[in-house]
Amino acid sequence: MKNAATFLLGLFIALSMFPSCSKSSKNSSQPTLYDSLGGTAMVSDPANSGQMIEKGRLGIRSVVDSAIFVIAGDDSINPYFMTLLAEVGANNFSGFNALSKNLTDFFCVGTGAKDYTYSGLSMSNAHNPATNHRISNKVTAGAFNEFIVDVVIAANKNGLPANLTASVGRVIESQMSVVVQR
User: In whole angstroms, what is the distance from residue 107 CA to residue 21 CA?
Assistant: First the structure.
């Protein structure tokens, strides 16, 4: 689990290296992490009949959605998501869908996708109950590390290769200093 946590931490670190969350203008001949996750090849979207989705985005969304469910079952960190859990318990999936889209956009941009932007709150504001009523408490280092473990579990459930899981982990880890606020 420690290697998986390191991977996810790396994912957050890589994301934090992006000065803005806008379309990438990188014209490198080297494939991005997004390319390694499936890139821009269009595939049928299993969640939206008759629609197409980039394979990289579908892979990221699959891991994100799985991670949300893993976190929901993790008593050590699910108290941070009480608003979301209450909504889902009442068959209201609007918050789930918004979180899924925001996290998917965030990871798409952070892994090198060129066709997406992240327009959500800054990581600091998103994880501060004073600026985001959807989070119950300021995040601790322990909760952040548990989040990484849960994302690794989700990545494994979706068959993400270990080297890509580690890269995603570095992106996640890069965000620790702004997410952990107590």
Answer: 10
Instruction: Read off the tokens for 141.
Output: 């280092």
Q: Which of 146, 176, 180, 150 is nearest to 165 (CA)?
A: 150
Separation between Cα atoms, residue 18 and residue 175, nearest integer Å:
11
Domains of the chain in start order, with CATH, are 2-16+31-179 (1.10.490.10)
> Quick check: 100 and 71 in contact, CB under 8 A?
no
Provide the token pair at 42.
């269009």
Question: What is the C-alpha separation between 36 and 50, in angstroms, rounded?
Answer: 25
pLDDT digits (tens, 9 = 90+) for 157-177: 999 888 888 887 888 888 899
- Confidence label for 13 from pLDDT (cuts 50, 70 and 90): very low
Whether the pLDDT of residue 2 is over 70: the answer is: no
Instruction: Report the C-alpha gap between 123 and 143 in whole angstroms.
Output: 15
Q: Is 17 helix (H, G, I), strand (E, B) or coil?
A: coil
10 Å CB burial of residue 132 (0-12, 13-18, 19+) is: middle
Q: E-assigned strands of 1-128?
A: 42-44, 52-54
Cα Rg for the chain, rounded, in angstroms?
15
Residues in CB range of 80: below 8 A, 6 or more apart = 135, 136, 137, 139, 143
CB count, 10 Å around CB of 178? 17
